[in-house]
Every structure is written in structure tokens, then in C-alpha cells.
Amino acid sequence: MASPRKSAQQVAAREKARQKAADFTASNEDLIELAARLIEFHEAAQGMETAAQEKTEGIIAQGKADAEEARNESGDDVARMLETGESRSAVAARLGMSVATLKKYVPAPAPATPAVVPADA
């Protein structure tokens, strides 16, 4: 049998090389598309996490403000209980809390304003 011509072998080798290059290019294109999708999803996930974090911080801040408002309103009742002459420990025991916790509810006394002395004295 006769062996194929050298030019036929070269043509076949070139075709095989072109096919491998085309397969490699197609594979790279697929990888690029997948990488682009990954980046899009990653950025979307980060945006969602940031939005959730901001929303959580807002809810916590509102909760703290509401709790402080409730403490201030109940502080008036605690002050009235103390005005009856009961000791702080007795009022705290009646309310089922420690004296330290009771102090959070007692309104702070208003600061005394110093008397203004006239300058012509």
C-alpha cells in the first residue's frame, strides 16, 4: 500500500489543529459567560446583603427608640411609686426587678439652674 502524500498529511494536520483551536475558543467563550454570570450574581448578593443590613440597623434603631420611650413613660409611674415613701428596693421587689434595673426607669432629676448675679453689685 502506498502511504498518503505529504501535502495530504499537512492538510489533515491543519484541519485537526483548526478544530482543536475552535473547540478551545468555544470552551473559553463558555468560561467567560459563566464567569460573567458569577460576577453578576455575586454583586446582586452583596447588594441584597447590604440592603438587609441597612434595614436591620433601621429596625434595631427604631426598637431602641421605642424601648427608650416606653421606659420614659413608665418612669413617671416609678417616680410616683417612690414619692409614696417606699424605698427603691421595696419598689424594685414589687415590680420584680433589681434596684439597678429600676434606676433605668427613674427619671433623672432636672439640673438646677444657677442664680444669675447682677453685674452692678
Keywords:
single chain; 121 residues; mainly alpha
Per-chain topology:
Blueprint: H1 6-83, H2 88-95, H3 99-105
Tally the beta strands.
Answer: 0
The amount of helix comes to over 70%
**What would the average pLDDT be, to the nearest integer?**
86
What are the low-pLDDT stretches, counting only 5+ consecutive residues below 50? none
Largest β sheet strand count, sense and barrel closure: none
How do the SSEs run, as a string of H and E? HHH
Secondary structure class reads mainly alpha
Number of helices: 3
Radius of gyration from the CA trace? 40 Å
Distance between the termini: 134 Å
Shape, principal axes of CA atoms: rod-shaped
Strand content: under 5%
What does it look like?
It is a single chain. 77% of the residues lie in helices and 0% in strands. The chain has 121 residues and is mostly helical. The longest helix is centred in the middle third of the chain and has 78 residues, at 6-83. The radius of gyration is 40 Å and the shape is rod-shaped. The N and C termini lie far apart (134 Å). The mean pLDDT is 86.
